[in-house]
Automatic annotation (TrEMBL):
<dbReference type="Pfam" id="PF10984">
    <property type="entry name" value="DUF2794"/>
</dbReference>
<protein>
    <submittedName>
        <fullName>DUF2794 domain-containing protein</fullName>
    </submittedName>
</protein>
<dbReference type="InterPro" id="IPR021252">
    <property type="entry name" value="DUF2794"/>
</dbReference>
Amino acid sequence: MNAAPPFAADPERVVFDRAELGAILTVYGRFVAAGEWRDYAMSFLRDAAIFSVFRRATEHPLYRIEKRPKLRSAQGAYAVIAMDGRILKRGHDLSQVLKVLDKKLIRAVD
């Protein structure tokens, strides 16, 4: 019997590495602290790794942070996509792509 370990890496799936996940969770933590986001989900597919953020777990995702390695040589592997499907930012550097979300966190204070 030659069974794979339960958490063996699947070379057919795209995943976020530790540094990428750390950058995403840093942004996520800031929005959670501000009370804007409450939940997240991750999907690891054959062509993309997707980190979705939610205001409430029962809603559609507010934003999707995607990694699509096949687009690396074209527009860039990383993208932030809004709930309506608009690509807010795409690029080769995840930290630069995530900066588009910083604008969403700035609010006027009374």
